[in-house]
Amino acid sequence: MEQEHSALHTLKDIKQMMERSSRFISLSGLSGVAAGICALAGAWFAHRVITGKEPESYDYDSLTIGNMLRYKLFIIALLTLGFAIITAFLFTYTKSKKNNIPIWSTATRRLMLNFCIPLVAGGMFLLRMLELGYFELITPGCLLFYGLALVNASKYTLGEIRYLGYAQITLGLISCWLPESSLAFWTLGFGVLHIVYGVAMWWKYDKR
Amino acid sequence: MKNPIENLNKIFDSRIRLGIMSSLMVNEDLNFNQLKEIIGVTDGNLASHLKTLEENEYIKVQKGFIGRKTNTTYAVTQNGERAFKQHLEGLGQMIRLLE
Question: B4-98 has which CATH code?
């Protein structure tokens, strides 16, 4: 009897060490919720600009990669991204401290690399699309590349993030054909889906 | 019936050696500092357990350089993979006896 119990214990140890060494498991559900809330706030400001309550001072026809910073929509996008990354990082940092797992490990580096490859490539591509004036394809592009980045990263962190990726890709594809609802799709993908995913993950892993 | 305990490998009795093998099974290779980070032991302790695994040909050692600093990486051998899987199988059998 004694021996069987120790066998079970050993297997748990092995599983834990395999996960710890190959996956970044400190990703907090609350990070998803925080990023989602930032996205909702960003979408609200963007909506005001688009509907003319806070109109842009410059014409989009003269937009280039060099002068993007004078456009309100672009500033809103940058701020939203910045706040989302900072708040998401804080919750994950707290979780890794609490579980006593180093935040910057081989697993983290591998996760970041695999997450950033599709994202950075996609980001550059979308900047060029903005310059060429393909505004209708920016939202679908954001959702698609972000979804692909999530699917790519899912091997290196909690596996469920793959489903968030599938959902973003699906939304991205649908929104290709509904350019007039771009902002709604963007809000749904980056805001609502993040919050739903975050709550689900928090419920499964972090709730005490 | 054969006693499943025969499938258990004495070499993997130590928690640290178990940790080294578990980590190397899911990573192509790891260097000394990465292993230290994962398992959380002192240099001397880790080195002596790595030595044991190396002597049994369960892991292979590759010495290299990053700039001027030495960088020694470790990876499982086919032999080590087989032995570790058998050990896991043994543990599994013991648990199934419980049910």
Answer: 1.10.10.10
